[in-house]
């Protein structure tokens, strides 16, 4: 039986950091951010023997709950989301069954439309269609992970639905930071190594940012979103995320998540920046931004190389570049970004993605048909506001 966690934030982060694939989005700080934007955090744990609660937990889940304000349905229109969780040994079939049973029962008790999970359960690694895909399966995954395949089959058998709303990227690119500096450079594509050195020769410098830099970085992010055609939120949201995670020093990366902006400058003027987040010996590249000026000096390449070195020095074993295409073809909107990430020498990691369990198929169908249309309207308004902001 799942039990509510009643400890402190540091205790939660310490607890989850020792699970397989602990994730930044399951931390207490991420829940704090979401709590300011309509979500109610609900941390739960599972013990190996429920009757003896003092034993080390065997599973955890930071569940986010939200009530959708729809007239006449306010009490029923409730959704549950476990971002990049739950955390457990998914290959333990008995434990997996127990956790999924409890989540399904919890969704029913909460009268939820659905509960969504998207744990980092690996289906396979490698780039589909690559020339060395000698072991490729019909899906194009170079190396299959049988545990992930079994998990997917189990979810389907239980009636879970592969979600049409994939909140997080399903696939990513992961860089192995246990390698030496020379090995990291050797794994990069030749053009990427050349661009790193070119940026240094052209006078690009990189420095860690501070809280005072955040307004300038948001404006640069807004410029990037308009130029590259993606939607961002208002400044208050990003200020909340960045400031929440910039509270902690880099010396505590095992248990205390933190973030730092890295800013590339030419003659003292910011031209590009990235935000790197750290937790449980992994670094994450969540946000990137740049100006049109001096792009030929390749500041983004030097930023990523600096991020890799800083993460390695801080004790991280991996650097997650956060996002790769679902379809590895030029038609995918992420293709250009992926080619840049691929050049850095990482490996594609393909995961399970988001799955929904619904106690109410009728409400679920209503939700999945209505919410995308509302989001389209909201995104259009947000894009208009961002354009107006950077013109002023």
Layout: helices, strands, pairs:
Layout: E1 3-4, H1 9-16, H2 28-35, E2 40-47, E3 57-67, E4 78-82, H3 93-109, E5 114-117, E6 122-125, E7 143-144, H4 146-158, E8 161-162, E9 171-176, H5 181-187, H6 190-201, E10 204-208, H7 214-228, H8 235-245, E11 258-266, E12 269-279, E13 282-290, H9 299-313, E14 318-320, H10 335-343, E15 347-351, E16 355-357, H11 361-391
Number of helices, where a helix is a run of at least 4 consecutive DSSP H or I residues? 11
Shape: globular
Give the oligomeric state.
single chain
Structural class, by secondary structure, is alpha+beta
Please tell me the overall pLDDT: 88
CATH architecture label of the domain at 178-316? 3-Layer(aba) Sandwich
- The residue fraction in helices comes out at 25-40%
What is the name of the CATH superfamily of the domain at 178-316? Gcn5-related N-acetyltransferase (GNAT)
Text of the CATH class of the domain at 178-316 = Alpha Beta
Described by strand count, sense and barrel closure, the largest sheet is:
9 strands, mixed
DSSP strand tally = 16
């Amino acid at each position: 039986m799942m039990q509510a966690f009643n400890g402190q934030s540091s205790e939660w982060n310490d607890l989850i950091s020792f699970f397989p694939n602990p994730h930044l989005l399951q931390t207490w700080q991420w829940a704090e951010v979401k709590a300011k934007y309509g979500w109610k955090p609900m941390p739960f744990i599972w013990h190996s023997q429920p009757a003896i609660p003092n034993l080390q937990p065997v599973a955890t889940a930071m569940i986010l709950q939200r009530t959708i304000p729809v007239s006449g349905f306010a009490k029923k229109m409730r959704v549950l989301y476990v971002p990049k969780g739950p955390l457990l040994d998914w290959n333990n079939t008995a434990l997996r069954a127990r956790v999924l049973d409890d989540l399904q029962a919890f969704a029913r008790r909460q009268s939820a439309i659905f509960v969504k999970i998207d744990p980092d359960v690996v289906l396979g690694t490698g780039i589909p269609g690559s020339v060395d895909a000698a072991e490729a399966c019909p899906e194009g995954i170079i190396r299959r992970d049988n545990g992930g395949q079994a998990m997917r089959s189990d979810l389907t058998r239980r009636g879970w639905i592969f979600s049409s709303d994939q909140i997080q990227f399903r696939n990513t690119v992961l860089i192995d930071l246990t390698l030496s500096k020379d090995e990291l450079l050797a794994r990069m594509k030749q053009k990427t190594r050349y661009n790193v050195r070119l940026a240094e020769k052209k006078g690009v410098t990189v420095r860690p940012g501070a809280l005072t830099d955040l307004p300038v970085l948001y404006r640069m992010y807004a410029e990037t979103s308009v130029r590259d055609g993606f939607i961002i939120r208002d400044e208050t949201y990003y200020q909340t995320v960045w400031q929440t995670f910039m509270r902690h020093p880099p010396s505590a990366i095992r248990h205390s998540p933190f973030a730092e902006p890295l800013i590339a400058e030419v003659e003292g003027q910011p031209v590009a920046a990235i935000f790197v987040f750290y937790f449980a010996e992994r670094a994450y590249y969540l946000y990137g931004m740049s100006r049109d000026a001096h792009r030929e000096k390749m500041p983004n390449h030097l930023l990523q190389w600096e991020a890799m070195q800083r993460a390695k020095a801080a004790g991280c074993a991996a650097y997650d570049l956060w996002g790769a295409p679902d379809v590895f073809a030029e038609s995918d909107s992420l293709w250009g970004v992926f080619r840049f990430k691929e050049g850095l020498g990482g490996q594609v990691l393909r995961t399970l993605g988001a799955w929904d369990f619904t106690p109410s198929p009728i409400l679920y169908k209503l939700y999945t048909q209505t919410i995308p249309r509302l989001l389209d309207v909201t995104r259009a308004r947000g894009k208009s506001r961002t354009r107006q902001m950077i013109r002023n």
